[in-house]
Structures
1.
Amino acid sequence: MTGWTWEYEGYEAADERLRESLCTLGNGRFATRGALPECAADGVHYPGTYVAGCYNRLTSDVAGRRVDNEDMVNLPNWLPLRFRLPGQHWLTPDTGTVLDHRQVLHLSTGTLERRTTYALDARRTLEVRQRRLVHMADPHLAALRTQFRVDGVTDTTELEVEARLDGGVTNAGVPRYRDLDGHHLTHVHTGSTGADTVWLRCRTRTSDIRVGMAARLTAGSPVRDRHTPPYAVQAVRLRLAPGTTGTVDKTVALHTSRDPAISDPLRAAIDRVDRAPGFDALLAAHTTAWAQLWRRADLEVPGEAGPVLRLHLFHVLQTLSPHTADLDVGVPARGLHGEAYRGHVFWDELFVLPYLNLHFPEVSRALLRYRHRRLDQARAAARAVGRRGALYPWQSGSDGREETQELHLNPRSGRWLPDHSRLQRHVGSAIAYNVWQYCEASGDAEFLHTKGAEMLLQISRFWADSATYDERLGRHRLRGVVGPDEYHDAYPGATEPGLDDNAYTNVTAAWVLTRTLDVLRALPEPRRRELAERTGLDGGELERWEDVSRTLHVPFHSGVISQFEGYGDLAELDWPQYRRRYGDIRRLDRILEAEGDTVNRYQASKQADVLMLGYLFSPAELHRLFARLGHRLDDDIWRRTVDHYLARTSHGSTLSGLVHGWVLARARRAEAWAFCQEALRGDIADLQGGTTGEGIHLGAMAGTLDLVQRGLTGLETRESALWLDPVPLPELSSYGFALRYRGHWGVRLRLERGRLEITVPASDRSPIDIRLPGREVRIRPGQIRHLDLPDRPPDRGPHAGPRRSVSPSQPP
């Protein structure tokens, strides 16, 4: 890796899936994996093209049960372009002799370059150079330029080149899903519209999304076409004289029936590819669009972390670009990079939106509108379990129903097991948190007072209605849930799934209730009355919310916060023994199940659960939340809690290292950097053991960016001000980034050697209020301020942080 490139030298079949994911190109509307165009889907390669929000539902027979699953669809493959000497086999790195191979991802321009040299025979070599793009300016276009050169002879060499649109693809990118039906496309038809353009149309089997694709091939030689559905094929024969280069350009347009402002996706694709300029002009416009994105999301971090963070930012922008603001889509947990998690939307937006809020607030707003459009579905889900309010699904897809599978496969044992992760009802609190954070950062009062208030109200209503009063404890309880840990889904020996009083769930539910009450009090009176009339909200219900927000039970054991009620009674696991036996124990749940045991018996977590509270809330706010709930949370209790769970977490999720690094970084603990590195390396080193080849982990990538943006700076957006309390790690003591805050574009913060520089570009906006420990600064547009930061005292403990009082935040 270098500052602006990501490079692979040599061809390694075992690494192809990982490379394909990390070399994916996209524009927020669709993305294509970085597979070699001459290679078809097989055990080594997996080309895939995915359109944001394009899902299809199929029923499969699994383990004697009929199971419905909705998947993000692998659409027709536009990449195929293969080549050979006449009468010989088609060349691929797996069938030919590769003398040299190099693949370079250019982050600055959003292009993928490859150069491969094949041995044709004892005398001749064929050099293949390709450059591809998925257009960031026109989000319906992609292009591939291929250049051929033959060396080692003095006479002309003929080369056959064949390009295809392939409609015979299936969803087969995740081995453990292969017992499920992956044939999502039907009614594949192909045709031609001229000497150089072919087309393909099809539709999804049940969602009936129509797909239109058109490809233009130019080569300086006659192009022939033929149609053998599911393929549209174009062929050209190049005559390569010594020392000359033959160029073949393939330009592709992709539309679906979900696109606005079209009548027919096939006609739209044909028209678009006909109007598209040549490759050089496409590249110029594409490069300009990327340059504009990099200016808006500028991030400068020295050292080895810098290039990795830039790669993470690149993949976030390919999945969620300004084009996403026009779509009805959520945050796919694995990006548009593969088929893991079936392209579903989880709570990963909790780790993504805080970054987007301060760079692309229009994208954050669109992602929250995805949730608002599915509010009625969430209310129906609540009614189905006998509750009022809104119960958002743990996994969401096209229409907002619960998409969590009922069974999951343990690859170690080969057994299909019940999946109870749909009981992770804390996803509603994550949505509420994102509504609040977005409105605080953007100042979007209109959204907060309308759609935001509606979601907050219904999520709060669900929590209040789910809480039951325990006379013995004198507190309200939330029973039968699963927490972020995910390992624990039932008590040992229990016949029913679910746990009681998950601390993270209860504390965040109390926060949601409190924030919703704040919003309702601050609403303009006509809007408050309107909302109450539409929802049947009355004073008695608000009194209950107030009561529940102060009395939700938070369990403790041995002087630490319990992950859930009864957690302290579970057995201790022999961690050294399992590490000796298995080495990598990140998926401890699978290991124990294969042994005939269950992780439900042990104090062992997959990922951060209780410690997520330290990720979401500043130390001062967390103290305040616990005080409101009637509990003391001092630095000693938090220190013991952090140490307890650090020793009992297997980090089976890429989000776990991120959260632990964040929590420890606030305390300037020496261990923090090890966890930050785990988060940085999660995908590039494929630490989860092959999962990156199925799609990148978008939440972890965005979270590392937010670690620099908010975690290390102590940045909070509240009370119409930017609050800063930098606590730099020695390994990341110098960094800079630009952000967008309440109409100010390109506000730049740079921290270096105890000095903070803040630049506010000239505009007609109001000054920005900056709050630092012990002082306040107002910076007007056009000003640059240099602020010396005081030396921080020695480590005050894992929960150390700004010692300031926190008043209830007011809505913008």
2.
Amino acid sequence: MNFKWKHSVAVVAATLLVAACQNEEAKETPSANVDADLSSRSLPPAPDSQVPDYWPEISFTTENSEEVETTVSELLDSMTLEQKVAQIIQPEIRDVTVEDMRKYGFGSYLNGGGAFPNNDKHASMEDWVAVAEAMYQASVDDSVDGISIPTMWGTDAVHGHNNVIGATLFPHNIGLGAMNDPELISRIATVTAKEVRATGIDWIFAPTVAAARDDRWGRTYESYSEDPEIVGKYARAIVSGLQGDIRDGNIDDEHVISTVKHFVGDGGTEGGDDQGDNLADEETLFRIHAQGYVEGLEAGAQSVMASFNSWHGDKIHGNKYLLTNVLKEKMGFDGFVVGDWNGHGQIKGCSNESCPQAMNAGLDVYMVPTGAWKPLYENTIAQVKSGEIPMSRLDDAVRRVLRVKVRVGLFDLPSPAKRSLSAKAELIGAEEHRTVAREAVRKSLVMLKNQGGLLPLKPDMNVLVAGDAAHNIGKQSGGWTITWQGTGNENSDFPGATSIYQGIESAVSQAGGTAVLSEDGSFEEKPDVAIVVFGENPYAEGNGDLSNVEYQRGDKTDLALLESLKAKGIPVVSVFITGRPLWVNPELNASDAFVVAWLPGSEGQGVADVLFTSENGEVKYPMSGNLSFSWPALPSQATVNRGDGQTPLFAYGYGLEYGEEDTTQYPLSTVRGELGNAGPSSHDIYVRSTQKPWQLMIKDSDGDTVMQSNIITSSAASVRTTDRNVQEDSLDMRWTGDAVIGFFAPFPEDLRDFTADTSALVMDIKVEANADSLAIASGCSENCDVTLPLANYLNNTTEWQTVTVPTRCFTEQGAQFAEVFSPVALSGAKGAHVIVSNIRFEVAVDDAPNCKE
């Protein structure tokens, strides 16, 4: 699920989030590799096409189906149109009140990542259960809306109950995939369900069953494997663990409703672009990207979440062929399809507030946060009345929601406050739960290098523990940790958890050794060994996308730390924190041993369990993890996958064990472009039209105004499209006061490909008036962008000219291009007037000018 917050650079409002995703175009980058016999592409079938036989029929059934259907029919027959529509509207806790629930009787509600009762990050168990109880009682109160149907609360518990302070946090899915242990996955799911039930919540938006095929994708860590076989096995295991055995009836109050997501193809978008376009042919879509649904639905998952991505240009939220013909009719899924965060608003012709196309395509529940639920509710009622949405389609959607509620026993359970696990604070982070998580950490570690058999270490040593991830529980836990992006957390936000350093210190001190924490690697007494814990900072969807998979491109601070210790003659053990395979050849060269810990979660001591022997030198726990993703040999090798004919650095399934000879020949090559594919030669911002993901905005004292047609006006500026060579290929910008006119996005883009000495920001411009007041800015945000006088790069002419501003002119003054929210913005004063077109970054520009202050 996707929770988008307001970023300081653009104050990105909901309107920008909708507009940014409409009319989405695929990146012109190579597609993810698939098996050779499945690599051909074809156009998607028409909605009424015959579904191929390789899509299977799901065999899961419930013994009480006839009784359930009778109960559902009786409920449905008693409902008004307004009551029916309320069942398919899902608002978010920050945008809906208990009185709203009493008045409308919503079928469900959710809390997004970083949403808490009373907006209190440290809300107690009683606070969580109080919200659940109040919403439940309001939903069954028929005094206002005339009907008594219990509502459901859904949450993203994707690696434990990750929104709750003190919860047990398991390794993210990529680490679990390295275990290849479905039985442990089922135990993890059971633990998660209990901790979720302790907060009064009924429903989890998990598991994610994407097969990530491009490691540039910022959600790769949410994927168990590039291999659909592992994904399928895990989907069955986790659904069974979350829901329990419901073949004979209800989900008890120690289990929860599960959701397999995101249907379908989110792991195979072009260029690893989050919410992008999957261009696979249909058989590849099934064999690579749908196996988690086959197995998860066979296990009885009651809901499916539609994906943000497109398939051949059509948003899945509006794809009738996939949602209805394939999923519901051919596969026989009889639960309900829930949307993702305002995903319906991304369909062409839709908005967050109105989208009959989604309902008609097969969406059953609109996930509609950010305050858009009321107009959507009213518009949907009107659309059913007019026949734009057939009553039969609405009835089918409501029947599916009610079917699940009846089938899982929601009508029979006591209210949230009276359920057996509710408000039991001792369940959150319980010792037996942490034991399961610690086991998962141990089994998820993958050893890529162990020269000279350095590992395992005896604990009675003088150990230096370095690196910025060594004592940082938030960093080792990654995204979707308390907050959506996993940022803004401190160790104090993780009561009961252990950092990797704490685990090492405990193991060493018990054996009479010493462990010294020194993030920068400095020391007074030379250590026997250095364990350096480093890696990616937390991120979630959107923010995590990369343009290639080189680790710390342009800022090799961790490599410098490793090399400095190595130069002092200290054996170096690297523990790498990452949400995906990355090109780390230089870091591997600078390490004597290299262990991938992925994103291990709250039980960092599990790392030390494996790195150290017992006091008498015996191996306590084996190094047993194996790569569930191929490891890249080059920064450009983001789409190397099992069976695709490419040669990775470490193949799928690789993982050294203790005592096994490390036969890799070091040093590894650190040449970045041996196989070509160095990346795009240009990045278009406005070429004929505004290019994805950017949106044109005016920022002034009125706030932010987004351009959604061919004209935009505020009190201080205006922009309209105009013709230069072809229709509407240019932007006419006029300032009537102080304002910024620029391009912004809700998520950052990785533009480090355009920071070479030869790279530049290039645009065509025609100056009409007062150019001296104009300045041009580029960079990551208001806190780290750089502004330059535009006049310094202009020729003295009123004719069209091409302006070239070397990107080094921005970076030398501190602009950061790893996460760019605004690639170009023009600020001006009253009277300024220019026309611009063909705005883009270019990798290599001939005769670029010098930087001018």
